[in-house]
């Protein structure tokens, strides 16, 4: 995929000497930061330790490798906060969104991507950019002072050496959570005499048909036996650093067996909910629970078990997951796993320009700041890249307003929580983008002059959030362009 780098450049074709922006980590946040900084006119050195050193989850040396789900979640920019974030990123010339749109897969109203095509596209674009240089090798300490303007975007799998160096300078060593990987099944091994294709409520989103998920139904006895097996199944042992009871799971990516332990009905009100689905083989029989699988590659040979991240041992995964109707002979391209995910106590440690308060030449972006999710990570990279470029070019720059999805995320990690100067911000936890992070909106009345209620009120509020956000984000972009004139 060829993406023209000059689309956002304040200095198209400029060769003036400017301060170099160093970026550590070529994941989604680092790649987006590099793209934005370079397109704003800055020279960029992007440092990536892979392939010299891989992590427990990464398998390639590609930029923006997707190690968990291949879904960017909802692409509805009118009624969903993450869909709004997608649209804001598109407006800002996001490399991550351009690659995702080019390599999208059918997934109902969600934006799912072919993971190899996506990361290959990002890698190709980064390598071809005339202002970006990629340097391979691990950065195992804080960057040297002579680097100056630097973004650390090492993500949830920051190396122990670098994490230790950050902890030493911040005193922040206790905040971490676990992240988990769901299994992937070969489509040809699924029994379609039992399973069927359908999106929930037959909803057809961009690139989808309304029949984008494979559904495997369970009756009540099957579901109860499955939940019991999850709870009783043998889990992989924790490594020493994972045994700390103060290291919590993140609720948005809980292992399936941890959800099961929260109560016998938890799963059928979560990832196994049957709502909006009708068994094509027995329409008159309402499933008690349903396991959904989502397409994971462009040719449709691999399907991801939605919400089935797990710490179960591999043998246990095979035994238990094959009790699911339709997966009795399932073959797995990848089994589930779990790893620790580190993040900063950002409200205490980072200012509103994403700079480390004690060493302001260092910025942070991505999941290490306390945002959660692929898109949220890339969005913080987008803002950090522009902030760093403005500094390199000697220009004033402000992050997007809090009424936008980008601004709300930045506000969450820098001022949206109770911050303290003498200890951890105990309430601060990783967060996906959501409308609750945006300032409240004022709703009007219906055509008859009556107050809106119920679903109409909910949808009106969401539309008010998104219309205001997009208007304010466009105004912010226009201000950015004027500052480069």
How does this model look, in words?
This protein has 485 residues and is of the alpha+beta class. It folds into two domains: 5-175 and 343-443 and 464-483, 3-Layer(bba) Sandwich (FAD/NAD(P)-binding domain); 180-340, Elongation Factor Tu (Ef-tu), domain 3 (Beta Barrel), CATH 2.40.30. 30% of the residues lie in helices and 15% in strands. It has helices spanning 28-39, 81-91, 95-102, 115-128, 160-170, 220-232, 256-261, 314-321, 346-349, 374-393, 405-414, 454-483; strands spanning 21-24, 44-48, 71-74, 104-105, 110-113, 132-136, 150-152, 176-181, 184-186, 196-197, 213-218, 289-295, 302-305, 332-334, 337-342, 355-356, 359-364. The strands form four sheets. It has a six-stranded mixed sheet with strand order 6-2-1-7-17-16, covered by helices on one side. Strands 10-11-12-13-9-14 form a six-stranded antiparallel sheet. The chain has a three-stranded antiparallel sheet with strand order 3-5-4.
Features:
single chain, 485 residues, alpha+beta, FAD/NAD(P)-binding domain, Elongation Factor Tu (Ef-tu), domain 3, 6-stranded mixed beta sheet, 6-stranded antiparallel beta sheet, 12 helices, globular
Mean pLDDT: 87
User: What is the distance, rounded to the nearest whole angstrom, between the alpha carbons of the first and last residues?
Assistant: 30 Å
How is the main sheet built?
6 strands, mixed
Number of helices, counting only DSSP H or I runs of 4 residues or more: 12
Helix content: 25-40%
What top-tier CATH class of the largest domain fits best?
A: Alpha Beta
Strand line-up of the largest beta sheet = 6-2-1-7-17-16
- Global geometry: globular
How much of the sequence lies in strands comes to 5-15%
Under CATH, the homologous superfamily of the largest domain reads: FAD/NAD(P)-binding domain
Per DSSP E runs of 2 or more residues, the count of β-strands stands at: 17
Low confidence ranges: 6-16, 418-422
Computed structural class: alpha+beta
Taking Cα atoms only, what radius of gyration do you get, to the nearest Å? Answer: 23 Å
Number of domains: 2
> What's the SSE pattern?
EHEEHHEEHEEHEEEEHHEEHEEHEEHHH
Task: Specify the CATH architecture of the largest domain.
Answer: 3-Layer(bba) Sandwich
Under CATH, the topology of the largest domain can be stated as: FAD/NAD(P)-binding domain
